[in-house]
Amino acid sequence: MEFINETQDIIRKYRKTEPFALVSARATTLFILVAILGGYFAILTALIALDKGIIVSQLQPAEIIPVPDVEITFNYHFNITCELRYLDGKTPIACDEDLVTQPSCDENSEDQRWHGWFTSIDGRLKYNMAEKLYGVYFTINIDDPRYLRENDAGMFIKVHDSDFNPRTVPQSVHDQALKVDPNFYSKLDELNYHVIGFQQVNWMFINRHIKKKMIPSFFSVLGFPPTYFEEPYITSRYESVTAPDTAEFAGQPITGQQKYANLFIGTLNWFQEVEVESRTRRILDSMSMLAGFYGLLAGIYILIFGFSPIRPWGICQNCCIRRRIKEKLHKDYPKSIPLIELPSIDETLTDRINYLEKFLTQFICDIDYMKEIEGEKDLETAENIEQDLLEGENGKDEKTDEFASQPDSSSSNRRGGKKFSPF
Hints:
The protein is α+β, with helices and mostly antiparallel strands and 423 residues long. The chain folds into 3 domains: 76 residues, no CATH class; 221 residues, Acid-sensing ion channels like fold, CATH 2.60.470; 30 residues. Helix content is 37%, strand content 26%. Strand 4 and strand 5 form a beta hairpin. Keywords: Membrane, Transmembrane, Transmembrane helix.
């Protein structure tokens, strides 16, 4: 049942066949339901426009986790050494030299400080559960004679996921990350930023995350599976302990290599958290909800006023204006109401058939669309005439004339009912 067709029926049909009160009730109820449907559509549209998505998180086992990249910044010159640590007590192994970039100070840099890096080149170094490799232990030494313990403001550590280090990712990936989330890199800088002090032993245990950000597109809003941009990052739990003999070094100059601090970076969590961004509202989902709500409103309308092809009367006709409906029916069918009452004594078969056709047309069958072919010739007759003309063109005029001179008994029965027989 369509509200548009119902509106047309109210204008063309119901106002002629039903009491004015019922027609008014139909029109008022239909207007209210359409207004409610329009309001619901507006609400769904607003929800789609304002939807910012949700993050669905799930833990996935990971036997291999990339060793993060480390950037160390200090006001004085220093150097870095590192070794790999194993859970099974295996002897630590020194890191390859190409994984460590010793500190350098660019005179043109803004901070005028020394920067050193540890980088897992192309993800070559990974924490491996099968091999029991779970951490990297750094030893940081200083050899700058300008160093004064009293002026030491601390050494700054930044840690990034090696698969998504802002310093090493391709420019295209960098630009795409800024397009998807302009604040992503600033969040990374603040996420694992620590300060270590002189003669401290520091532990950093990392947890790996992969954030899948949706790339905005019309198809994702429509309801098709979206395209994601992956942003791996890490979070960390940081602890530190200061050696008890630190105070003895205060005020003493640096001679040769002096150990500044130790830093352990590892993991005991062999799971990674995958955060998938998804939309809570999509156009196709909203359309299905709108269709369901439309069906609900249509059901309410049918319950109140009935559904012509199945149950012509609803609650309104049966309970509210029952007397007026009966009066209207008796007025339209003065002798007897078809399908409800038995034929009256003075009612002929023709009257009964006419009443029945009118009743079916009024309440049961919708034949308005068939009025377009009213007055047209019978299709079979039209086909026969067309065939006669074609045969005449092919030199078969004699046969055509003989055929045309014969009356079409089937057409006569169908159109005029001259040979009508109930048997």
